[in-house]
Amino acid sequence: MSGSGPVGVGLIGAGNISDQYLGTLTRLPDVRVLFVADIDEARAAAQAEKYGVEGSGSVDELLAVEDIEIVVNLTIPAAHAEVGMRVLAAGKNVWSEKPLALDRESGRALLDEAQRRGLRVSCAPDTFLGPGLQTVRRAVDDGEIGRPLTGLTLFQTGGPERWHPSPDFFYARGGGPLFDMGPYYLTTLIQVFGPVKSVYGLGSTSHETRTIGSGPRAGRP
Ligand SMILES: NC(=O)c1ccc[n+]([C@@H]2O[C@H](COP(=O)([O-])OP(=O)(O)OC[C@H]3O[C@@H](n4cnc5c(N)ncnc54)[C@H](O)[C@@H]3O)[C@@H](O)[C@H]2O)c1
């Protein structure tokens, strides 16, 4: 990062997960959150006020703030690559929520653009940096459990509409368990075992209609 002192951070996407980020980032001495943006500017303003962030408004306004060096992209998955590209075009580094992009091509394009501009792209999940998965990694690297032959991860849930007040994106392109929760499990497997060589998949639809379970739209399909 340039200069010294706290790094300026801007946050795009003031939805459900933004409380987690703002609650943490506004308490860290090494960063200073300067602006919250959303296509819903009233939502951005409400989150900025709640966490004492001085600026809020549109994405363009955020990208014009010179002191912002890292932009945290908390938009819905379908917007991740496009918003990420806009951040890079403004000369800023981007941290994106998962998934990085909806297809390999736009993910690759984002990484290539960052390299071309000498900027950084990083992406959730960072959970493998935590003590649990780092302990696993050390145990495997040090040969403590011998040569692992298989790894198994399992995830089961009835669906996010029971707790998320705006669950639409989970059922749009870029949603679904593989894109939403898969990154956590795949990141773990890749960190411990290395890159993926081949993939097999199988799917089905369990419910034709789903009902929102929380927030102002609770009870609606
Ligand atoms: N909710 C969670 O518990 C959770 C946990 C981990 C990761 N995530 C990830 O965080 C991201 C956001 O999830 P969420 O639950 O906060 O979603 P959300 O729908 O509650 O919020 C998304 C916000 O992004 C805004 N937005 C959408 N497109 C935009 C654009 N082009 N420009 C500016 N703003 C835009 C929307 O107006 C909305 O306020 C997703 O990628 C999700 O996978 C969410």
TrEMBL record:
<keyword id="KW-0520">NAD</keyword>
<dbReference type="InterPro" id="IPR036291">
    <property type="entry name" value="NAD(P)-bd_dom_sf"/>
</dbReference>
<protein>
    <recommendedName>
        <fullName>Gfo/Idh/MocA family oxidoreductase</fullName>
    </recommendedName>
</protein>
<feature type="domain" description="Gfo/Idh/MocA-like oxidoreductase N-terminal">
    <location>
        <begin position="8"/>
        <end position="122"/>
    </location>
</feature>
<feature type="domain" description="GFO/IDH/MocA-like oxidoreductase">
    <location>
        <begin position="134"/>
        <end position="209"/>
    </location>
</feature>
<dbReference type="InterPro" id="IPR000683">
    <property type="entry name" value="Gfo/Idh/MocA-like_OxRdtase_N"/>
</dbReference>
<dbReference type="Pfam" id="PF01408">
    <property type="entry name" value="GFO_IDH_MocA"/>
</dbReference>
<dbReference type="InterPro" id="IPR055170">
    <property type="entry name" value="GFO_IDH_MocA-like_dom"/>
</dbReference>
<dbReference type="Pfam" id="PF22725">
    <property type="entry name" value="GFO_IDH_MocA_C3"/>
</dbReference>
<dbReference type="InterPro" id="IPR050463">
    <property type="entry name" value="Gfo/Idh/MocA_oxidrdct_glycsds"/>
</dbReference>
<keyword id="KW-0560">Oxidoreductase</keyword>
